[in-house]
Amino acid sequence: MSEETSQVMGDSAERQFAEEIADQVESFLIALRAIGAGGDSGSAVPLLLLEVSQVLLAGARLGAQRDFEPRQEYQPDVGPEADVDDLRLRLADMLGDADTYSFVFDPYAPEIVVSQLSDDLTAIAADLENGLRHYRRGDADEALWWWQFSYVSNWGNLAGAALNALLTVVSHDRLDTEFSGEEEDLAVAEEILEGDAAL
C-alpha cells in the first residue's frame, strides 16, 4: 500500500469519526434544549443523566485518539458563541435545590469546588457547540481538535462531575424511601420494652 493510499484511507476514517462525534454532539445539544424547555423537574434529572452519560462516551472516544492537530495556529472565526443564558436560567429553575452541588475538580490535588449543574451543563454545551460550528463549516480537523482539547481541559471534567451529581439525585430518589410502617413498628417496640421492664 502506497503512502498516498494510506493517507487517503486515514483521512476517510477521520472524516467518519468526525461525523460520528458531530452526531453525538448535536443529539446532546438538541436533548439539553428540549429538557430545558420541558419544565418537568421530575423527568429532567433522569433524562439529563442519560444525555450526559452518552456525551461522555463521545468524550472518551476523543480522549482515546491520537492528538488531533489544527491546521492553523489560531482558531478560525466561526461567529459569536451560542447564547446559553436562557437555557441556563431555565435549567436552574427546573433543578431548584438540586442545582448547587460540590465536587473535586482534580482528584490528585483535591480541593472541593462548589458549582451549579445549570452552569456546568451550559458550559459543556457551549464547548460542544463551538466545535460543531467548525464541523458545519466543513472544517472537520478543527472540530476534532477543539472537541478533543476542550474535553481534556474542561468539559470532560465538568460532565463527569455533573454525571455524579445527577446520579446522586436519582439514587436518593430511588433509595431514600421512607418505610410506611415505621410508626407502628416503633409502637410495638416500645410495648415490648415496657413489658420487659415490668418483668
Describe this structure in words.
With 199 residues, the chain is mainly alpha-helical. The chain has one domain (3-198): Protein of unknown function DUF5063 (Four Helix Bundle (Hemerythrin (Met), subunit A), Up-down Bundle), CATH 1.20.120.1550. The chain is built from 6 helices and 2 strands. Strand 1 (100-104) and strand 2 form a beta hairpin. Helix 1 (3-38) crosses helix 3 (85-95), helix 1 (3-38) packs across helix 5 (140-175) and helix 2 (41-63) crosses helix 5 (140-175).
Main beta sheet: 2 strands, antiparallel
Provide mean pLDDT, rounded. 83
Widest beta sheet: strand line-up: 1-2
Question: Runs with pLDDT <50, length 5+?
Answer: 1-10, 178-182
Portion in helices = over 70%
CATH classification class? Mainly Alpha
Q: How many discrete domains?
A: 1
CATH superfamily: Protein of unknown function DUF5063
CATH architecture: Up-down Bundle
Structural class: mainly alpha
Shape: globular
Strand content: 5-15%
CATH topology call: Four Helix Bundle (Hemerythrin (Met), subunit A)
Number of strands: 2
Written as H for each helix and E for each strand, in order along the chain, the element string is HHHEEHHH
Total helix count?
A: 6
- Calculate the terminal CA-CA distance, rounded to whole Å: 94 Å
- Alpha carbon gyration radius: 24 Å
Summarize the structure.
This protein is mainly alpha-helical and 199 residues long. It contains six helices and two strands, in the order H-H-H-E-E-H-H-H.
